[in-house]
Amino acid sequence: MFKINRLKVEIETVNGTYGLDECFSKGLNFISSQDNTKGKSSILEAIYYCLGFEQIIGGTNGIGSKVLTSVFKSSIEDKNKTWSVLESGAYLEISNGISVVTIYRNMVSDSKDNKLVTVYYSDLNSISNNHSIQSEDYYVNMPNSATSDRGFHTFLEKFLHIELPIVNATDGNDRKLYLQMIFSASFIEQKHGWGDLLSGMPFFGIKESKKRTIEYLLNLGVFETEKEKSKLKDLKTKIDSNWKSIIDTISLESAIRDCYILNIPVHPRILKDFEVNNISIYTNKGIRIDKKIIDLEKELNELSELKPKVIDNFEELHNELELTEKEIYELDLKVKNITESLSFEEESVNKLVKSIDILNKDIQNNKDVARLQKLGSDNGFDIETECCPVCKQKIQDNILVDTSNNIFMNIDQNIQHLIEQKKLLEFSLNGHIHSKKSLLNQKSQIESNIITLTKLAQTIRSDLYESVDTSNSETIILKKINLQQRIESLTELTQLYDKFRSDILELSDLWTNYLDKKNSLPKENYSNSDYKKINLLKTKFIDNLKEYNYSSLSDFNTIDISKDTLLPTIDGFDMKFDSSASDSIRLIWAYTLALLQVSIEMNGNHPKIIVFDEPAQQSIVPEDMNKFINSLVKLGKKSQIILAITLNSDELNNIVNKLDENSYYNISIENKAFSLL
Amino acid sequence: MDNNIIMGDIVFDVKPDAVPYNCRISYKVPQICLIMYLCGWNCTCSLVKLQIISHFLKSDNIDDLIAYIDGQGKIPVIRFDSTVNSTLKFAVAYGLVNQEKNGKFKLSENGKNFVSQIVKNKELLVYETNTLKTLSKKLSEEKIKELFDPRRY
């Protein structure tokens, strides 16, 4: 269980240190004052701020101290005098039920970035007494602060033993659900919080963010479906890669044998039989492979039948020799050219690989520099080098030359610059590798052609000049051998092709299977136990409403919790449309509490802390307020509830006074929340 | 010209230049401090020692230096670098380094604290830290004297 133990705010002024140091207990806590503008909301703000949840107050862009009230940032009033704030910060001691940590985050400070949060592994008292307390700095509300090891919200997630689910974002990627979103369901802030259910939730580009948050709080099984989805995604990647690999193999095998393949389906899809039949292999001269094999066999047979003597076709042989030699010469030239370009490509590849290595080192070092600068900020000196450490004139981060005339990139720009360079080089490297590969293919093909032709030329020559009249023409024998080889290799290709067809059909079946599974995945897959939880949420919600005298409705049976949004509806319409202003406040009371009640009863993921800032909005009558507070007391010590309230009437005072003294803890603010410490 | 397509003037803005990391103050200062911390007795180094180590760190052949110290390698060629001197000035200005009476440079408490955090963080300046750890404190001031002894030639 998450519990806030103690808050200590320190605001340094010339007049001394102002601030506040209050403890919180389990169960119900009041932060009360007789009047408005005493600083109750500022106390709550400090709590949000320490936890890095300032976006609940200020929206997605409300990062850092700018969302805080002026008392932390600019000036503080005391006895009609105004003192300007020099430095300020707050300690928040929290517990997860087992261990205790203290969080410190500064609000105004010249030396330390307020995106750095310090976590002390001890309670607040021991920090000042004991200097050996371990502490670590974490980043908050910066990119990756929810996922990286140094991110504060990663720390908080671990500390609170929360396991945040991965959810879909609007940009199509998967992201972790944000802690801010979960806590916005239980931290009802005064300015936005009372507008609508969960209206304080900052926008982080998560799809159906409210629903996802409620699903998580109630610990519904939908995330199982998400797991199933990711399994299917893996399956898809597997099919994709297999599909690509078998297509690559058959294309390569065809290319080696001077053939090409037509009508090939490049991406996985459901193949019909005729489509598979349409995939066929042609030789480079455009003849279908099976026909080519038949032709070759015919030629071979003809050759076997005739056994010409050399003397009969002397002229013919002579011509053939000339032609063959010419062809060999041309092919030789080609090989020479290819070899030249190959060596050029190789050199480019080597150069690029080296450059990328250097760039990688550069990028790493620059990133180190960026972090060193931040580390420096923590140690009281800035190596940010904006200004000279001695004369405080403006200088730039360059040790070499007088930098007065040139502008230099700052470290972030520099890193970006290098990364872009790397992208460019990688693109070019890929191009070179690709062309090198295709050149190598071409070369080996031509070389094998040359060998065949050379053999042919040799035999023709021996036929012409050496053989005895009666002997069989060696040329013909060689031709026969060549033909046989060709037939063999083409037959092999047809076998491969048959295998390819059966493989791709199999993959196509898998693909069909995958699509089927994907479509049968329910959009909203709530299991029975999920429905139980949702029904309990409905019951609790309606009970709460009745308790608080919700009166915009005569028949509570028409209320339902929508399965699409998990928010309450009446006859299918958003409940808020049909509620009076004060009733929509009751609605928020009822729903916020119902989430906690269900979570307690059915073992949900609710952090079990609720903060209400001024729940007595819209002139709620004291009687209902009384019931509300009593229902909070009933929750007992299983959770922590912090209620900031203005007790400006006798009725309200009476409500609090009538409560059993052990059932609540009151932080009463007499004058101003922040006084001289 | 009558057929001038571009009517207005073209203005070229000065674009910021990229700075190599080893010319950045924010890289060199921590690097120098790291050398003192890992290679200097009592975190103290003479200027020449800093120059030598910085040279070998940059040229990525610290093994040559170690071989020489062990009496096995050739006499290494050392290139002095003016950026080391200016880096020291900055380090002194930041209060990370103090100059001792004997002219050597020593890390201040602040500097020790800073470097210890770099070393503790296993992801920062990894190459530098590992290389300097292999050299450790092997390069003594005596060895340096020997290296620069004119009688050697």
Average pLDDT over all residues of chain A: 82
Question: What structural category arises from helix and sheet content of chain A?
Answer: alpha+beta
Radius of gyration of chain A: 39 Å
Q: Count up the helices of chain A.
A: 17
Q: What does this protein structure show overall?
A:
- The complex is a heterodimer of chains A (677) and B (153).
- By secondary structure, chain A is an alpha+beta fold.
- Helices cover 50% and strands 16% of the residues of chain A.
- In chain A, strands 9-8-7-6-1-2-21 form a seven-stranded antiparallel beta sheet. In chain A, strands 12-18-19-3-20 form a five-stranded parallel beta sheet, with helices on both faces.
- The longest helix of chain A is centred in the middle third of the chain and has 65 residues.
- Chain B has 153 residues and is mostly helical.
- Helix content of chain B is 50%, strand content 5%.
- Chain B has seven helices and three strands.
- In chain B, strand 2 and strand 3 form a beta hairpin.
- The longest helix of chain B is centred in the N-terminal third of the chain and has 15 residues.
- The interface between A and B is medium-sized, with 35 and 34 residues.
Summed up, what is this model?
The complex is a heterodimer of chains A (677) and B (153). With 677 residues, chain A is an alpha+beta fold.
